[in-house]
Amino acid sequence: MEGRPADDSVLIARAVRGDSAAYEEIVHRYQQLAFRTAYVITGSAADAEDAAQEGFVKAYRALDRFRLDADFRPWLLRIMANEARNRVRSSGRRHRLELRLTESFRPGDAAPSPEAVAVAMDERRRLLAMVNELGDDDRMVIASRYFLELSGEETAAALGIAEGTVKSRLSRALARLRARVEETANA
Amino acid sequence: MPDLERQLTGLAGAIDWPPTPRLNVVLPIYGEVTGLAGRRGWRRWPYALAAGVLIVATLLAYTPTRDVIAGWLNLHTTIHQEQHPPTPSPRPPGQLGSSLGLGTAVTLEEAQGQVSWKIAVPSALGQPDAVYLKQPPSGPSQGEVTLVYGHSPGIKVSGQTGVAVLVTEARGRINENFFQKMIGPESTIEQVSVGGHAGYWIAGHPHDFVFTDANGNFHDDALRLATNTLIFDHNGTLVRIEADMTKAQALQIAGSL
After folding, report:
1. How far is CA B72 from the centre of its chain?
2. What domain range includes position A47?
Protein backbone atom coordinates (compact mmCIF):
# COMPACT_ATOMS: atom_id res chain seq x y z
CA MET A 1 0.00 0.00 0.00
CA GLU A 2 1.45 3.31 -1.04
CA GLY A 3 2.23 5.67 1.81
CA ARG A 4 1.98 2.92 4.39
CA PRO A 5 4.70 3.43 6.94
CA ALA A 6 7.29 0.71 6.65
CA ASP A 7 7.34 0.05 10.35
CA ASP A 8 3.76 -1.23 10.64
CA SER A 9 5.14 -4.73 10.63
CA VAL A 10 7.59 -3.84 13.38
CA LEU A 11 4.78 -2.50 15.55
CA ILE A 12 2.66 -5.55 14.83
CA ALA A 13 5.50 -7.93 15.70
CA ARG A 14 6.03 -6.06 18.97
CA ALA A 15 2.32 -6.10 19.73
CA VAL A 16 2.17 -9.83 19.08
CA ARG A 17 4.94 -10.25 21.63
CA GLY A 18 2.70 -8.54 24.17
CA ASP A 19 3.90 -4.95 23.83
CA SER A 20 0.68 -3.03 24.44
CA ALA A 21 2.38 0.30 23.71
CA ALA A 22 3.06 -0.91 20.18
CA TYR A 23 -0.59 -1.73 19.72
CA GLU A 24 -1.58 1.65 21.12
CA GLU A 25 0.57 3.17 18.41
CA ILE A 26 -1.25 1.08 15.81
CA VAL A 27 -4.59 2.25 17.21
CA HIS A 28 -3.42 5.85 17.18
CA ARG A 29 -2.20 5.49 13.62
CA TYR A 30 -5.37 3.97 12.22
CA GLN A 31 -8.17 5.15 14.47
CA GLN A 32 -9.31 7.93 12.16
CA LEU A 33 -9.40 5.65 9.14
CA ALA A 34 -11.19 2.95 11.15
CA PHE A 35 -13.73 5.36 12.57
CA ARG A 36 -14.51 7.02 9.25
CA THR A 37 -14.80 3.71 7.46
CA ALA A 38 -17.22 2.50 10.12
CA TYR A 39 -19.09 5.80 9.78
CA VAL A 40 -19.53 5.32 6.04
CA ILE A 41 -21.04 1.89 6.74
CA THR A 42 -23.20 2.70 9.77
CA GLY A 43 -24.05 6.33 9.01
CA SER A 44 -23.87 6.99 12.74
CA ALA A 45 -20.95 8.46 14.67
CA ALA A 46 -21.97 6.61 17.84
CA ASP A 47 -22.19 3.26 16.07
CA ALA A 48 -18.94 3.98 14.25
CA GLU A 49 -17.18 4.67 17.54
CA ASP A 50 -18.45 1.41 19.04
CA ALA A 51 -17.53 -0.52 15.92
CA ALA A 52 -14.04 0.95 15.79
CA GLN A 53 -13.40 0.21 19.45
CA GLU A 54 -14.59 -3.35 19.20
CA GLY A 55 -12.84 -3.76 15.87
CA PHE A 56 -9.50 -2.82 17.38
CA VAL A 57 -10.01 -5.34 20.17
CA LYS A 58 -10.87 -8.05 17.66
CA ALA A 59 -7.89 -7.13 15.54
CA TYR A 60 -5.68 -7.44 18.61
CA ARG A 61 -7.05 -10.89 19.31
CA ALA A 62 -6.39 -11.92 15.73
CA LEU A 63 -3.06 -10.17 15.40
CA ASP A 64 -0.97 -13.31 15.67
CA ARG A 65 -2.75 -14.61 12.58
CA PHE A 66 -1.78 -11.60 10.52
CA ARG A 67 0.99 -12.36 8.06
CA LEU A 68 3.65 -9.71 8.37
CA ASP A 69 4.31 -9.70 4.65
CA ALA A 70 0.69 -8.77 3.90
CA ASP A 71 -0.88 -5.30 3.78
CA PHE A 72 -2.17 -4.35 7.18
CA ARG A 73 -4.73 -1.73 6.15
CA PRO A 74 -7.04 -4.03 4.14
CA TRP A 75 -6.81 -6.63 6.90
CA LEU A 76 -7.74 -4.09 9.56
CA LEU A 77 -10.43 -2.47 7.42
CA ARG A 78 -12.10 -5.80 6.83
CA ILE A 79 -12.34 -6.39 10.58
CA MET A 80 -13.63 -2.87 11.19
CA ALA A 81 -16.17 -3.11 8.41
CA ASN A 82 -17.39 -6.50 9.60
CA GLU A 83 -17.90 -5.04 13.03
CA ALA A 84 -19.73 -2.03 11.58
CA ARG A 85 -22.00 -4.23 9.48
CA ASN A 86 -22.71 -6.45 12.46
CA ARG A 87 -23.81 -3.39 14.41
CA VAL A 88 -26.14 -2.33 11.64
CA ARG A 89 -27.58 -5.84 11.51
CA SER A 90 -28.00 -6.27 15.24
CA SER A 91 -29.60 -2.86 15.68
CA GLY A 92 -31.90 -3.51 12.74
CA ARG A 93 -31.44 0.01 11.49
CA ARG A 94 -29.07 1.79 9.16
CA HIS A 95 -28.69 5.50 9.52
CA ARG A 96 -28.62 7.14 6.15
CA LEU A 97 -25.16 8.47 5.52
CA GLU A 98 -25.36 12.22 5.04
CA LEU A 99 -22.03 13.69 4.10
CA ARG A 100 -21.57 17.39 4.51
CA LEU A 101 -19.05 19.92 3.38
CA THR A 102 -16.92 21.53 6.03
CA GLU A 103 -17.45 25.27 6.26
CA SER A 104 -13.79 25.96 6.72
CA PHE A 105 -12.80 24.35 3.44
CA ARG A 106 -11.55 26.68 0.77
CA PRO A 107 -10.56 25.88 -2.80
CA GLY A 108 -6.84 25.68 -3.36
CA ASP A 109 -6.44 28.73 -5.56
CA ALA A 110 -3.80 31.12 -4.34
CA ALA A 111 -5.97 34.16 -3.79
CA PRO A 112 -9.47 33.49 -5.08
CA SER A 113 -11.99 36.24 -5.07
CA PRO A 114 -14.90 35.90 -2.62
CA GLU A 115 -17.16 35.31 -5.61
CA ALA A 116 -14.96 32.50 -6.95
CA VAL A 117 -14.88 30.87 -3.53
CA ALA A 118 -18.65 31.07 -3.27
CA VAL A 119 -19.14 29.52 -6.70
CA ALA A 120 -16.66 26.74 -6.00
CA MET A 121 -18.24 25.98 -2.64
CA ASP A 122 -21.68 25.96 -4.18
CA GLU A 123 -20.56 23.53 -6.88
CA ARG A 124 -19.07 21.21 -4.29
CA ARG A 125 -22.19 21.36 -2.13
CA ARG A 126 -24.37 20.47 -5.09
CA LEU A 127 -22.13 17.58 -6.09
CA LEU A 128 -22.05 16.23 -2.55
CA ALA A 129 -25.83 16.56 -2.30
CA MET A 130 -26.13 14.45 -5.44
CA VAL A 131 -23.82 11.83 -3.95
CA ASN A 132 -26.01 11.80 -0.85
CA GLU A 133 -29.05 11.16 -3.01
CA LEU A 134 -27.56 8.02 -4.53
CA GLY A 135 -28.47 4.56 -3.26
CA ASP A 136 -26.57 3.00 -0.37
CA ASP A 137 -24.24 0.89 -2.51
CA ASP A 138 -23.38 3.75 -4.85
CA ARG A 139 -22.85 6.21 -2.03
CA MET A 140 -20.65 3.86 -0.04
CA VAL A 141 -18.42 2.89 -2.91
CA ILE A 142 -17.92 6.54 -3.92
CA ALA A 143 -17.29 7.59 -0.34
CA SER A 144 -14.79 4.78 0.14
CA ARG A 145 -12.83 5.40 -3.02
CA TYR A 146 -12.90 9.19 -3.26
CA PHE A 147 -13.57 10.56 0.21
CA LEU A 148 -11.77 7.98 2.33
CA GLU A 149 -9.28 7.56 -0.51
CA LEU A 150 -9.13 3.80 -0.10
CA SER A 151 -7.43 1.62 -2.70
CA GLY A 152 -9.45 -0.90 -4.67
CA GLU A 153 -8.32 -3.68 -2.36
CA GLU A 154 -9.17 -1.64 0.73
CA THR A 155 -12.56 -0.68 -0.66
CA ALA A 156 -13.28 -4.34 -1.33
CA ALA A 157 -12.31 -5.18 2.24
CA ALA A 158 -14.41 -2.35 3.66
CA LEU A 159 -17.49 -3.15 1.62
CA GLY A 160 -17.17 -6.91 1.84
CA ILE A 161 -17.14 -7.43 -1.90
CA ALA A 162 -14.63 -8.68 -4.43
CA GLU A 163 -12.18 -6.22 -5.89
CA GLY A 164 -13.66 -6.77 -9.35
CA THR A 165 -17.08 -5.92 -7.96
CA VAL A 166 -15.66 -2.65 -6.62
CA LYS A 167 -14.72 -1.66 -10.16
CA SER A 168 -18.08 -2.53 -11.67
CA ARG A 169 -20.03 -1.01 -8.79
CA LEU A 170 -17.98 2.17 -8.94
CA SER A 171 -18.44 2.41 -12.67
CA ARG A 172 -22.22 2.13 -12.33
CA ALA A 173 -22.28 4.59 -9.43
CA LEU A 174 -20.31 7.15 -11.43
CA ALA A 175 -22.59 6.68 -14.39
CA ARG A 176 -25.65 7.35 -12.24
CA LEU A 177 -24.01 10.34 -10.62
CA ARG A 178 -22.94 11.70 -13.98
CA ALA A 179 -26.51 11.36 -15.26
CA ARG A 180 -27.80 13.34 -12.29
CA VAL A 181 -25.21 16.03 -12.78
CA GLU A 182 -26.06 16.37 -16.46
CA GLU A 183 -29.77 16.33 -15.72
CA THR A 184 -29.34 19.18 -13.26
CA ALA A 185 -27.17 21.13 -15.66
CA ASN A 186 -29.75 20.82 -18.42
CA ALA A 187 -32.69 21.72 -16.20
CA MET B 1 -19.02 16.52 -16.66
CA PRO B 2 -15.79 14.96 -17.93
CA ASP B 3 -13.91 15.63 -14.70
CA LEU B 4 -16.38 14.05 -12.37
CA GLU B 5 -13.80 11.78 -10.75
CA ARG B 6 -11.38 14.67 -10.32
CA GLN B 7 -14.10 16.72 -8.67
CA LEU B 8 -14.97 13.87 -6.34
CA THR B 9 -11.31 13.49 -5.42
CA GLY B 10 -11.23 17.20 -4.74
CA LEU B 11 -14.00 16.77 -2.23
CA ALA B 12 -11.91 14.42 -0.08
CA GLY B 13 -10.43 17.22 1.95
CA ALA B 14 -13.72 19.05 2.19
CA ILE B 15 -15.87 16.43 3.88
CA ASP B 16 -17.08 17.38 7.31
CA TRP B 17 -16.44 14.08 9.05
CA PRO B 18 -17.61 13.68 12.63
CA PRO B 19 -14.64 14.24 14.93
CA THR B 20 -12.73 11.04 15.50
CA PRO B 21 -13.34 10.10 19.12
CA ARG B 22 -10.62 9.01 21.48
CA LEU B 23 -11.10 5.27 21.32
CA ASN B 24 -11.14 3.37 24.57
CA VAL B 25 -9.64 0.10 23.43
CA VAL B 26 -9.48 -2.29 26.36
CA LEU B 27 -7.06 -4.99 25.38
CA PRO B 28 -7.57 -8.51 26.65
CA ILE B 29 -4.82 -9.98 28.79
CA TYR B 30 -2.69 -12.37 26.85
CA GLY B 31 -3.32 -15.98 27.70
CA GLU B 32 -6.55 -15.13 29.47
CA VAL B 33 -8.90 -14.18 26.67
CA THR B 34 -6.91 -14.51 23.51
CA GLY B 35 -5.04 -17.72 24.19
CA LEU B 36 -2.16 -16.05 22.40
CA ALA B 37 0.34 -16.66 25.13
CA GLY B 38 -0.45 -20.31 25.00
CA ARG B 39 -0.35 -20.41 21.24
CA ARG B 40 2.98 -18.77 20.97
CA GLY B 41 4.32 -19.37 24.43
CA TRP B 42 5.72 -15.89 24.66
CA ARG B 43 6.29 -15.99 28.34
CA ARG B 44 7.72 -19.49 28.65
CA TRP B 45 9.34 -19.85 25.26
CA PRO B 46 12.64 -18.07 26.00
CA TYR B 47 13.10 -20.05 29.19
CA ALA B 48 12.20 -23.34 27.52
CA LEU B 49 14.58 -22.55 24.67
CA ALA B 50 17.40 -21.62 27.03
CA ALA B 51 16.88 -24.80 29.07
CA GLY B 52 16.80 -26.90 25.92
CA VAL B 53 19.98 -25.35 24.55
CA LEU B 54 21.73 -25.92 27.89
CA ILE B 55 20.73 -29.58 27.98
CA VAL B 56 21.78 -30.20 24.39
CA ALA B 57 25.08 -28.37 24.87
CA THR B 58 25.84 -30.39 27.99
CA LEU B 59 25.11 -33.67 26.26
CA LEU B 60 27.17 -32.75 23.22
CA ALA B 61 30.09 -31.80 25.42
CA TYR B 62 30.25 -35.11 27.26
CA THR B 63 29.46 -37.69 24.62
CA PRO B 64 31.87 -39.19 22.17
CA THR B 65 29.74 -39.15 19.10
CA ARG B 66 27.75 -36.05 18.57
CA ASP B 67 25.94 -37.47 15.59
CA VAL B 68 24.53 -40.26 17.70
CA ILE B 69 23.29 -37.81 20.29
CA ALA B 70 21.88 -35.62 17.58
CA GLY B 71 20.12 -38.63 16.22
CA TRP B 72 18.71 -39.50 19.65
CA LEU B 73 17.40 -36.00 20.05
CA ASN B 74 16.24 -35.74 16.45
CA LEU B 75 18.40 -32.66 16.55
CA HIS B 76 18.57 -32.15 12.80
CA THR B 77 14.84 -31.94 12.55
CA THR B 78 14.70 -29.56 15.47
CA ILE B 79 17.28 -27.27 13.96
CA HIS B 80 15.45 -27.25 10.66
CA GLN B 81 12.22 -26.31 12.38
CA GLU B 82 13.91 -23.48 14.20
CA GLN B 83 15.24 -22.09 10.96
CA HIS B 84 11.89 -22.16 9.16
CA PRO B 85 9.17 -22.15 11.76
CA PRO B 86 5.67 -21.41 10.50
CA THR B 87 4.87 -20.21 14.01
CA PRO B 88 7.57 -19.91 16.64
CA SER B 89 6.02 -22.08 19.29
CA PRO B 90 7.07 -25.39 20.76
CA ARG B 91 4.50 -28.10 21.22
CA PRO B 92 2.55 -26.74 24.17
CA PRO B 93 1.84 -28.64 27.36
CA GLY B 94 -1.61 -29.41 28.67
CA GLN B 95 -4.63 -30.96 27.06
CA LEU B 96 -4.43 -31.62 23.36
CA GLY B 97 -5.40 -28.48 21.49
CA SER B 98 -5.49 -26.32 24.61
CA SER B 99 -3.10 -23.82 23.06
CA LEU B 100 -5.14 -23.27 19.92
CA GLY B 101 -7.69 -20.86 21.31
CA LEU B 102 -10.58 -23.19 20.52
CA GLY B 103 -12.58 -22.23 23.57
CA THR B 104 -13.34 -24.16 26.73
CA ALA B 105 -12.42 -27.83 27.05
CA VAL B 106 -15.60 -29.85 27.55
CA THR B 107 -16.81 -33.39 27.07
CA LEU B 108 -18.71 -34.26 23.95
CA GLU B 109 -21.87 -34.60 26.03
CA GLU B 110 -21.37 -31.20 27.62
CA ALA B 111 -20.85 -29.63 24.22
CA GLN B 112 -23.96 -31.33 22.89
CA GLY B 113 -25.96 -29.91 25.78
CA GLN B 114 -24.89 -26.38 24.86
CA VAL B 115 -25.57 -26.31 21.13
CA SER B 116 -28.72 -26.59 19.07
CA TRP B 117 -27.49 -28.93 16.36
CA LYS B 118 -26.54 -32.58 16.57
CA ILE B 119 -22.76 -32.64 16.74
CA ALA B 120 -21.51 -34.86 13.95
CA VAL B 121 -18.59 -37.12 14.82
CA PRO B 122 -16.87 -38.65 11.79
CA SER B 123 -16.82 -42.41 12.18
CA ALA B 124 -13.62 -42.49 10.14
CA LEU B 125 -11.88 -40.73 13.01
CA GLY B 126 -13.80 -42.17 15.96
CA GLN B 127 -14.21 -40.44 19.29
CA PRO B 128 -12.17 -37.23 19.59
CA ASP B 129 -9.26 -36.92 21.99
CA ALA B 130 -10.51 -33.53 23.13
CA VAL B 131 -13.55 -31.35 22.58
CA TYR B 132 -13.75 -27.57 22.84
CA LEU B 133 -16.72 -25.26 22.93
CA LYS B 134 -16.52 -21.59 22.03
CA GLN B 135 -19.50 -19.41 22.84
CA PRO B 136 -20.24 -15.79 21.96
CA PRO B 137 -18.84 -13.19 22.03
CA SER B 138 -15.59 -14.85 20.96
CA GLY B 139 -17.48 -17.61 19.14
CA PRO B 140 -20.29 -17.43 16.58
CA SER B 141 -23.82 -16.69 17.72
CA GLN B 142 -24.87 -20.28 18.37
CA GLY B 143 -21.50 -21.51 19.51
CA GLU B 144 -18.75 -23.49 17.87
CA VAL B 145 -17.60 -27.00 18.68
CA THR B 146 -14.17 -28.36 17.77
CA LEU B 147 -13.25 -32.01 17.88
CA VAL B 148 -9.51 -32.55 18.28
CA TYR B 149 -7.68 -35.68 17.19
CA GLY B 150 -4.11 -36.42 18.19
CA HIS B 151 -3.63 -39.10 15.59
CA SER B 152 -5.29 -40.61 12.60
CA PRO B 153 -3.87 -43.31 10.32
CA GLY B 154 -2.10 -41.83 7.33
CA ILE B 155 -2.29 -38.24 8.59
CA LYS B 156 0.78 -36.42 9.83
CA VAL B 157 0.69 -34.99 13.33
CA SER B 158 1.60 -31.33 13.62
CA GLY B 159 4.92 -30.99 15.40
CA GLN B 160 3.85 -27.59 16.66
CA THR B 161 0.57 -28.54 18.24
CA GLY B 162 0.54 -32.30 18.52
CA VAL B 163 -2.75 -32.24 16.65
CA ALA B 164 -3.49 -34.40 13.61
CA VAL B 165 -7.04 -33.37 12.73
CA LEU B 166 -9.44 -30.63 13.76
CA VAL B 167 -13.13 -30.88 12.99
CA THR B 168 -14.95 -27.62 13.71
CA GLU B 169 -18.70 -27.21 13.56
CA ALA B 170 -20.88 -24.09 13.78
CA ARG B 171 -24.28 -23.06 12.51
CA GLY B 172 -23.81 -20.73 9.59
CA ARG B 173 -23.04 -20.48 5.95
CA ILE B 174 -20.09 -19.67 3.81
CA ASN B 175 -19.70 -16.06 2.81
CA GLU B 176 -18.02 -16.58 -0.52
CA ASN B 177 -16.81 -13.02 -0.99
CA PHE B 178 -14.89 -12.86 2.24
CA PHE B 179 -13.97 -16.48 2.22
CA GLN B 180 -12.26 -16.38 -1.14
CA LYS B 181 -10.62 -13.08 -0.35
CA MET B 182 -9.16 -14.36 2.88
CA ILE B 183 -7.62 -17.51 1.56
CA GLY B 184 -4.62 -15.72 0.20
CA PRO B 185 -2.18 -16.51 -2.57
CA GLU B 186 -0.61 -19.46 -0.76
CA SER B 187 -3.70 -21.58 -1.24
CA THR B 188 -5.97 -22.85 -3.96
CA ILE B 189 -9.70 -23.37 -3.76
CA GLU B 190 -11.69 -26.08 -5.46
CA GLN B 191 -15.42 -26.48 -5.25
CA VAL B 192 -16.47 -29.94 -4.18
CA SER B 193 -19.67 -31.71 -3.28
CA VAL B 194 -19.94 -33.49 0.05
CA GLY B 195 -23.03 -35.63 0.40
CA GLY B 196 -24.80 -33.44 -2.11
CA HIS B 197 -23.90 -30.25 -0.22
CA ALA B 198 -21.62 -27.51 -1.46
CA GLY B 199 -18.11 -27.51 -0.14
CA TYR B 200 -14.64 -26.19 -0.76
CA TRP B 201 -11.33 -27.96 -0.75
CA ILE B 202 -8.58 -25.52 0.18
CA ALA B 203 -5.09 -26.78 -0.49
CA GLY B 204 -2.07 -24.92 0.79
CA HIS B 205 -1.73 -22.77 3.84
CA PRO B 206 -4.94 -20.87 4.51
CA HIS B 207 -4.97 -18.92 7.75
CA ASP B 208 -8.35 -17.26 8.04
CA PHE B 209 -11.91 -18.15 7.37
CA VAL B 210 -14.88 -15.79 7.44
CA PHE B 211 -18.41 -17.07 7.49
CA THR B 212 -21.88 -15.79 8.25
CA ASP B 213 -23.19 -17.26 11.48
CA ALA B 214 -26.76 -18.23 12.28
CA ASN B 215 -27.68 -14.67 13.28
CA GLY B 216 -26.29 -13.22 10.07
CA ASN B 217 -23.17 -11.85 11.72
CA PHE B 218 -19.81 -12.13 10.06
CA HIS B 219 -17.51 -14.32 12.06
CA ASP B 220 -13.79 -14.36 11.50
CA ASP B 221 -12.07 -17.54 12.56
CA ALA B 222 -8.55 -18.84 12.32
CA LEU B 223 -7.70 -22.01 10.49
CA ARG B 224 -5.56 -23.26 13.35
CA LEU B 225 -3.36 -25.70 11.55
CA ALA B 226 -2.92 -23.52 8.45
CA THR B 227 -2.96 -26.63 6.32
CA ASN B 228 -5.26 -28.34 3.86
CA THR B 229 -8.86 -27.74 4.78
CA LEU B 230 -12.22 -29.04 3.66
CA ILE B 231 -15.20 -26.78 4.38
CA PHE B 232 -18.74 -27.83 3.66
CA ASP B 233 -22.34 -27.49 4.67
CA HIS B 234 -23.81 -30.33 6.70
CA ASN B 235 -27.53 -29.72 7.13
CA GLY B 236 -27.10 -26.08 8.05
CA THR B 237 -23.97 -26.67 10.06
CA LEU B 238 -20.72 -25.45 8.61
CA VAL B 239 -18.07 -28.12 9.08
CA ARG B 240 -14.34 -27.55 8.69
CA ILE B 241 -11.85 -30.37 8.62
CA GLU B 242 -8.25 -29.25 8.98
CA ALA B 243 -5.35 -31.67 8.64
CA ASP B 244 -2.23 -32.39 6.67
CA MET B 245 -4.34 -34.68 4.49
CA THR B 246 -5.11 -35.34 0.86
CA LYS B 247 -8.42 -34.39 -0.70
CA ALA B 248 -9.40 -38.05 -0.84
CA GLN B 249 -8.72 -38.43 2.88
CA ALA B 250 -10.73 -35.30 3.62
CA LEU B 251 -13.70 -36.45 1.57
CA GLN B 252 -13.54 -39.84 3.25
CA ILE B 253 -13.68 -38.23 6.70
CA ALA B 254 -16.48 -35.90 5.60
CA GLY B 255 -18.40 -38.79 4.14
CA SER B 256 -18.30 -40.60 7.47
CA LEU B 257 -20.18 -37.89 9.36
Report:
1. 31
2. 8-91
Q: Which ipTM was obtained for this model? A: 0.85
Put simply, the chain B residues between 76 and 115 with a CB less than 8 A from any chain A CB are 87
Confidence (pTM): 0.50
- What is the predicted pLDDT for the residue at B64? 44
A100 in any annotated domain: no
Residue B40: pLDDT above 90? no
Q: Identify whether A103 is part of a domain.
A: no
Q: Which of B27, B32, B34, B40 to mutate to test the interface with A (most CBs of A within 10 A)?
A: B27
The candidate with the shortest Cα–Cα distance to B115, out of B136, B93, B94, B91, is B136
User: Mean pLDDT over residues B234-241, rounded?
Assistant: 89
Helices (H), chain A: 8-16, 20-42, 45-62, 72-91, 114-133, 136-142, 152-159, 163-186
Residue A99 placed within a domain:
no
Looking at every residue in chain B, the average pLDDT score rounds to: 72
